[in-house]
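In the laboratory, one determines a bound structure by crystallizing the protein with its ligand and collecting diffraction data. In a computational setting the workflow is compressed into a single prediction: the sequence and the ligand go in, and a structural description comes out. We illustrate the idea with alpha-D-galactopyranose.
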Amino acid sequence: MSLLERCRSGFSEAFGRQPHGVAFAPGRVNLIGEHVDYNGGLVLPMPIAAGTAVAWGPAEAAEVEVVALDYGQRRDRFDPATTQPLDPPGWQSYVRGMARQSGTAGVALAVTGSIPQGSGLSSSASLCVAVGLALAEADGETDRDPVALARAAQHVEHGWAGVNCGIMDQMAVAAGRPGAALLLDCRTLHTRHIGLPDDWAVMVVQSGVVRELVDGHYNARRRDCEMAAAQLGVPLLRDANAAMIAAADLESVVRSRATHVVEEIERVRTAVAAIESGDLIGLGDALRASHASLRDLFEVSVPPVDALVNLLNTTIGAEGGARMTGGGFGGAVAAVLRADAVARVRAELEQGYRPPNGAALAIMIEGASGLSAGTIQ
Ligand code: GLA
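The predicted complex, in structure-token form:
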């Protein structure tokens, strides 16, 4: 049964009637441009086939009623006009935050998803955008602006989950197209869809180390960047360059963070040029350099992720490359490689990588077959 079918039938079972519609939002894998969104830089994420589905219909009461199909049909019920952030935050917080912003009352929602959580593939942005689409549809708004939706979802992540994230995930989820990378300028929110050559493949591999964004490391990195920008006298690190960093008297950690951001933005430009000219070797170099910088300068990788990236890079060879993806401290690894190398690389990984959590190796191959964010009657 597909995710959308599971969502529809879960709604019927939970509420005893058919839903009026189902909203879907994908997850995302970031190909390159890590920890640069909140510095106003350029990023290159791509939607993935896994995502979140939210079936909706009228509720019997004037409140919002939610059932989490993946959590043993756990229920939540609240008044969207007065609901507040929960402590600790959980799935309910995301739904409540989106409902508080839209003000939609008298609606029943059933939620289910296929994105592995804590894997850096934006399960929370996907949940927020899917809920936002379902609520908009319930309000009779049929064409919700992706930028407004992304901003609402980011606001929920900040105020309802305590993660001071950038806008990359929400924009990738709300505006991305399957099979294409989304070049996003995080300062202007201008986007450009960049299709990947048909004979390339994007592979996403779970490291088996579950990531916790909320644990403070993420917000701490953001503070380091803000400190660097302030000391360099620029509003955002997007406005800094290598010469400014070399000339400034920055403390060594702050210097490393700023260097990563400035160089990573350049790597996004290099990666876009490489994709557009079909240069998989050039893209691979940029991916490997990005990982090294996240490991050594930004310090957001962990040893099992480094081991997985190294194994992938050795196996893939020059034509492509791999790097950690997402906020870091575990989660998934992204690789771009020749489509005809996928079977060989998969076999090598099955031989050579054991996820530390004891789980079976999970590999996703991403292409144009997924869905973009939207609603279905
Ligand atoms: C998380 C955040 C994003 C972004 C990445 C790192 O996914 O939600 O805003 O900062 O980390 O690139």
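The two ends are 18 Å apart (CA to CA). Keep in mind that any predicted model is a hypothesis to be tested, not a measurement.
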